[in-house]
Amino acid sequence: xxxxxxxxxxxxxxxxxxxxxxxxxxxxxxxxxxxxxxxxxxxxxxxxxxxxxxxxxxxxxxxxxxxxxxxxxxxxxxxxxxxxxxxxxxxxxxxxxxxxxxxxxxxxxxxxxxxxxxxxxxxxxxxxxxxxxxxxxxxxxxxxxxxxxxxxxxxxxxxxxxxxxxxxxxxxxxxxxxxxxxxxxxxxxxxxxxxxxxxxxxxxxxxxxxxxxxxxxxxxxxxxxxxxxxxxxxxxxxxxxxxxxxxxxxxxxxxxxxxxxxxxxxxxxxxxxxxxxxxxxxxxxxxxxxxxxxxxxxxxxxxxxxxxxxxxxxxxxxxxxxxxxxxxxxxxxxxxxxxxxxxxxxxxxxxxxxxxx
Length: 357
Known about the structure:
The chain has 357 residues and is an all-alpha fold. 67% of the residues lie in helices and 1% in strands. It has helices spanning 2-16, 20-27, 31-38, 49-55, 60-64, 68-88, 91-104, 109-119, 129-145, 149-163, 168-175, 185-192, 195-220, 228-245, 255-271, 275-293, 323-330, 343-355; strands at residues 298-299, 309-310. Strands 1-2 form a two-stranded antiparallel ribbon. Helix 13 (195-220) runs antiparallel to helix 14. The N and C termini lie far apart (53 Å).
């Protein structure tokens, strides 16, 4: 127990950013005593344990690491169960799960992070005030408590997105806490690694960059009243760069994005009453939606991504059903009424219904 508490004490003290002297002063003991505890050369008197635990905002059990293994095991079970809900898009059960975990472990940053994302997993924008308040409280608590880089980055991202519709200045403050595009963890790893490991890292980063560029082209069109053709051009760019990356047509789970981008193009052509191009885009949307519904684990085969494996179990979504369900819902838009009675449109609907969940 001495070995465990010495590491725990040092970690808690560093997280709270206090010196051994400051802790000793608070406890009314000498700094040499604190030093001995952290070196494993002694152990706090039992009467000091409640005061130490209160000072660091932990339980005595946590301080002594008595329950750490049980806590980790329990949280791991929550994470595993959550994974199944994310894969099926069951947001309600995922939220209920993390509310339960938070009631049990309110000071664990892993739990706070999962709950933060679960609260608004439906992607409501603007985020409802009562949800935003909770997300912000959780995100800021993580930044105060956590020293884990990825955890802190996730909190910053969530805070930025949440504040976006509430307080632009505050959102920008969090945005500026993010890393530079040129010094990302991924970019630095790519520049450091060589050989097969370096190639794999480069492919993963390249895929992420292409996906980000495609998404940004799409998002850009929502910021101003762009023309129909400008919106179409932005989404064709997104499609073209994805197809360039997956040059042999084996696009894996990029099918979901391609389905969406073709759907956006179809809508703009529909607004212009261009029946031929509307139906062409909807046919492509249908093709990729059906592909997503029947996709299995596989390896990418195009030269720029052939070190990457894609597993269905690693894909999370925030909606139930599959891309065919989403496409069918989109077809209810009244802008498609002028082609609704055509044979091509009916074929698309029939095909989507066949594979919808």
